[in-house]
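Journal club prep, shared notes

We agreed each person brings one worked example of a sequence with its structure written out as tokens. Mine is Competence protein ComGE. I'm keeping it raw so we can talk through how to read the token line rather than staring at a rendered picture. Sequence first:
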Amino acid sequence: MCRKCSGFTLVEAVFALALLLVVTTALLPMFTQIMLERKNIDLKEKAQQLLSVALHEEQMKPETTVVDGRTTFVLHSYYEENDMWKVCVRWNDYAGRSLERCGYGKR
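Then the structure, token by token:
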């Protein structure tokens, strides 16, 4: 064998690959969680847009359903005391949580 050879030995290469595998295995669940939360943020923004449009709409039914891809948004609207108009939007996010946002307007 060559005593002054430069390069990796088989043990060093296997160790490096094993280390890479451990790091990848540790980071993959966090990466998928981050991607899921990004999608949930997009759903939250869509719900806020629907809420904004519903608050400015003159004639709105007491309950309206909006389907956007795999997500169903349900808008509830009703009057509260002091002539306040309340609109709430409900949806289920990609993690299976049920979320709601509400807004108020004067009519």
